Amino acid sequence: MIGTLRFAFHDYVRSYRYVAPLLAFMTFLIFVYTVVPNPVMPSYSMTVSLTFLIAAWLGFGFVDAEDETQQLVGVLHAGGWITYFVGRWLLMLGVGACLTIFATFYPILFNKFDRQPGVEEVLSALAGHMGMALLGVGIAYLFTCRLVGKLNYAITGLVLVLSLSFAAGGIRESLPEGLSFIAYLLPPVFSLIDAFNRYETASMAEAAYALLAPPLYSLILLLVYLRLMKRKML
Hints:
The protein is mostly helical. It has helices at residues 2-15, 19-32, 40-63, 68-78, 81-109, 119-141, 145-148, 151-166, 168-174, 190-197, 204-233. The chain has one domain (2-233). It has eleven helices and no strands. α5 runs antiparallel to α6 (119-141) and α10 (190-197) packs antiparallel against α11. The longest helix has 30 residues, at 204-233. The mean pLDDT is 90. Keywords: Membrane, Transmembrane, Transmembrane helix.
């Protein structure tokens, strides 16, 4: 696994596919906090949205960074396709952790908030950003060209799913009561944004769901991705 991670890291660094999304992430984050002071959790609701989008961008660029020949060689060196794909996913987890740390602690260290956030708020922010990073990567992985076929289809599908994720609240309200459950099948992005915006009034159950749903959903996406790639490679 360590060898797979090292190989994937060096290959990704050489690809430079991370440069544009990381520059966009840092530029937007710094721009958001240009005006001070800012409310704590509503500000974090904006940066979890940003983390979700940038993680999806990074994941989409990373998942197809290797051609099929390189991929087969990587599977052989890793000792199996599961080790290979999980290893590459773990690398994206590390990238997501970097986004999370920067987005959470930048406004604290540079006094961008109207007050110092409490420990509970910092932990919630860390969990929320990490969950959004995992979710973004998980969604992007399913739109690899090896599964979708054409790049334009993959990009269109990814953008559509990302857009629907943000619109889940409105979709739920517009559906008849008996069909409102359909909105819960969408990636749980809106619930976290809403919980952060209503942090003082959200119930414990709402907060727990908002923080736990994204990583659990991303785990399901990873399992689906592994199953689909197994069929593709057999």
